[in-house]
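Bumping my old thread because nobody answered last time. Still need a sequence for this structure:
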């Protein structure tokens, strides 16, 4: 499975960005899809995840109420709508999918939020 993320960039605080991540290759049987992030000098952390059906979503406490995860299974794409961005949201964002017990990672896209 190959993952390509799009949509990162620079924005001022309280602004919005929408990330997308398209999966290609062996996409059959992809289950959960999600996003993680890694800020400079910090460990990679969970941001949000969504089940195959889209019926279940999970969020880190730090983003709940501001970020919304969604997916389009026909396009093998997962999205992350990020609103009310804060400087502490600055990080490289990575998409992640689970397929047949294995985890796959994209290369990441930079999000920078200035105050």
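Sorry it took so long. Here it is:
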């Amino acid at each position: 499975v190959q993952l390509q993320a799009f949509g990162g960039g620079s924005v001022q605080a309280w602004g919005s960005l929408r990330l997308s991540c398209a999966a290609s290759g062996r996409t059959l049987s992809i289950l959960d899809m999600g996003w993680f992030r890694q800020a400079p000098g910090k460990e990679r952390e969970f941001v949000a995840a969504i089940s195959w059906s889209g019926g279940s979503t999970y969020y880190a406490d730090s983003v709940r109420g501001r970020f919304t995860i969604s997916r389009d299974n026909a396009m093998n794409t997962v999205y992350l709508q990020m609103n009310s961005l804060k400087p502490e949201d600055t990080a490289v964002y990575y998409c992640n999918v689970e397929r047949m017990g294995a985890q796959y990672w994209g290369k990441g896209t930079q999000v920078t939020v200035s105050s």
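The first strand starts at residue 2 and ends at 6. Let me know if any region looks off to you.
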